[in-house]
Amino acid sequence: MSGGDAKKLVRSPSGLRMVPEHRAARSPFGLDEPPWVPDKECPRCMQCDTKFDFITRKHHCRRCGKCFCDKCCSKKVPLPRMCFVDPVRQCAECALVSQKEAEFYDKQLKVLMNGATFFVTLGTSDKSELMVCRLSNNQRYLVLDGDSHYEIEIIQISTVQILTEGFTPGGGNTRAIGMILQYKVPGSEEVMQMKFTAGEDFSCNKKLSASWLAAMHKVSKAAKAWTRL
């Protein structure tokens, strides 16, 4: 997790952004600012086709960069994937996507960064180690701390299988009790496996562990989808 998490405040035409000083430290969930459609190429709103004039001014959506009238681009919504400090103007379509992503940042990522405790088994070993598992502050690594120390880059995770209990043939509630994680070792095609199990003696933390596992599942899916964009 070297490279530092230092950030700097930058101003762009879209607004103030708090970004990592080094691009290598950016979150795998980050999104670059789009180029704006030039004003001269946009005589009409790209949503409702209203003609721009002295009264009807044009506005650019900070997420897609397209040009709209005020009516079609009036919402100011948080856009954490672009590291904006304040909510920014977005078109209706982009605002819906950003609202869902903001919920992801506020819930799943915070749960993972707070961490949870599991027994971790490496590969085919028959020994497990009690470790605190959390997402790094820059969201790039899954950090495991115990007698040993591991850092797994999120984008290297290939499979997350959640282990549950409580299922009955007739239906019923299930509870996440662990997961099997597979990831690639950087610089090679070798695939490693780890098994995470919530300890039975941590009854007070069962809900926390289950929430952490559910968040890990969602984050791994988002990492695969978003890093392809």
UniProtKB/TrEMBL annotation:
Highest taxon above the source species:
Eukaryota
**What keywords does the record list, in alphabetical order?**
Metal-binding, Zinc, Zinc-finger
Q: Name one GO molecular function term.
A: zinc ion binding
* UniProt cross-references to SUPFAM superfamilies, sorted A to Z: FYVE/PHD zinc finger (SSF57903)
User: InterPro entries per the record?
Assistant: FYVE-type_Zinc_Finger, ZFYVE21_C, ZFYVE21_C_sf, Znf_FYVE, Znf_FYVE-rel, Znf_FYVE_PHD, Znf_RING/FYVE/PHD
The protein's matches in Pfam families, at most eight in alphabetical order, are given as: FYVE, ZFYVE21_C
Indicate the segments forming the FYVE-type domain, all copies: 39-94
Which protein are we looking at?
ZFY21 protein
Taxonomically, what lineage is the organism?
A: Eukaryota, Metazoa, Chordata, Craniata, Vertebrata
